UniProtKB/TrEMBL annotation:
It comes from Nocardia macrotermitis. This is Gamma-glutamyl-hercynylcysteine sulfoxide hydrolase. One of its GO terms (molecular function) is hydrolase activity. It is an enzyme of class 3 (hydrolase). Its EC number is 3.5.1.118. PROSITE patterns: GATASE_TYPE_2 (PS51278). Pfam families: GATase_4. The lineage of its organism: Bacteria, Bacillati, Actinomycetota, Actinomycetes, Mycobacteriales.
Length: 260
C-alpha cells in the first residue's frame, strides 16, 4: 500500500513552504512505505518528475525534489504489493504527456484491464503493476469516449469493480487544468479488515492560497474534511475552485457536482 499527497497553490512556491507542517509527517510514513517515492510537480505548463526506489526519509534526491518551486504537485510513497518488484518502472507517479497519476491500493488480477487498454499504451508500459494499468485504462478512456478526467476516472473504477477484486482505488490525477483525487475502498478486503476502517481515508483542506489532499496518516485538524468514498475531488489550478463529484464503481453516470 502507498501514501498520497497532492497540492495546488495560487502562485508557485517551494513545496517545503507550501507543505510546511505536513511534509515531515508525510515523509516519516516512508519508514513503513519504504519501496520508493515520486514527485510530479507543475510550474505553469512545465512538468517536473523526480522518482527514486530508496525510502524517501533516507533519500537526498527526495529532499532536493521537495524544494522545487511549483503551483501544483502530487507526491507518492510506495509500499509494494507482495511479489511486486521495486524498480524504477514500477515507481509512481506514472506520466504521459501532461498527465501524472499515482495510486494507493491494489486490484487483482493485475491483467484484468489489459484487453481494455489501447494496445500501444499497454506495449509502452514501463513496469508491471496494477497501478500503471489503472492509469493506462484512464488514458485509453480519455482518448476515446470519456474526454473529461472525472468521467474517465469514474468509468475506469467501474471497469475494475466489474472485473477484479480490489482493496482501494484511491488515486491522484494531475492535469494541466486540475488536480483530481478519487477515494474508494472495499471494506471487506483483507487489507481493510487488517488495517482498520480509517487506513484508506483521504482528507483535504481548502485555504485562501492553497488546497491540499492527503492519505490518512498525516495529522489533520478542524480545517480538514474527509473525502467520502465514491467521490472525486476536483481542484482547479486556475482559481482553486473546489468541487466534489459522486461516482460508483458499479455503474457510474455522467458526473454531477456535489458542491459548487
Amino acid at each position: 500500500m502507498c501514501r498520497l499527497l497532492g497540492v495546488v497553490t495560487r502562485v508557485p512556491r517551494p513545496l517545503t513552504e507550501t507543505l510546511e507542517g505536513l511534509l515531515e509527517p508525510f515523509t516519516a510514513l516512508s519508514r513503513e512505505h519504504i519501496d520508493g517515492w515520486g514527485i510530479a510537480a507543475r510550474r505553469g505548463r512545465e512538468q517536473i518528475l523526480t522518482r527514486g526506489t530508496d525510502p524517501a526519509y533516507a533519500s537526498p534526491a527526495y529532499r532536493s525534489a521537495t524544494r522545487v518551486t511549483a503551483d501544483a504537485a502530487l507526491l507518492h510513497l510506495r509500499l509494494a504489493s507482495p511479489g511486486a518488484a521495486v524498480r524504477p518502472g514500477n515507481t509512481h507517479p506514472f506520466v504521459a504527456g501532461t498527465l501524472a497519476f499515482a495510486h494507493n491500493g491494489f486490484f487483482s488480477p493485475r491483467e484484468a484491464l489489459d484487453d481494455l487498454i489501447e494496445p500501444e499504451l499497454l506495449a509502452g508500459a514501463t513496469g508491471d503493476t496494477d497501478s500503471e494499468r489503472f492509469f493506462l485504462r484512464v488514458l485509453s478512456r480519455l482518448h476515446g469516449e470519456n474526454t473529461d478526467p472525472i468521467d474517465a476516472l469514474a468509468h475506469t473504477a467501474a471497469d475494475i469493480g466489474s472485473r477484479a477484486d480490489f482493496g482501494s482505488l484511491n488515486c491522484l490525477l494531475l492535469t494541466e487544468s486540475a488536480l483530481y483525487a478519487y477515494a474508494q475502498e472495499d471494506p471487506e478486503s483483507e487489507v481493510s479488515r487488517r488495517r482498520g476502517p480509517e487506513f484508506f481515508r483521504m482528507h483535504y483542506r481548502i485555504g485562501a492560497d492553497d488546497a491540499v489532499v492527503t492519505s490518512n496518516g498525516v495529522a489533520t485538524g478542524e480545517n480538514w474534511e474527509t473525502l467520502p468514498y465514491g467521490r472525486i475531488l476536483e481542484i482547479r489550478r486556475s482559481d482553486l475552485r473546489v468541487s466534489t463529484h459522486a461516482v460508483t464503481t458499479a455503474a457510474p453516470l455522467r458526473h454531477a457536482p456535489d458542491t459548487p
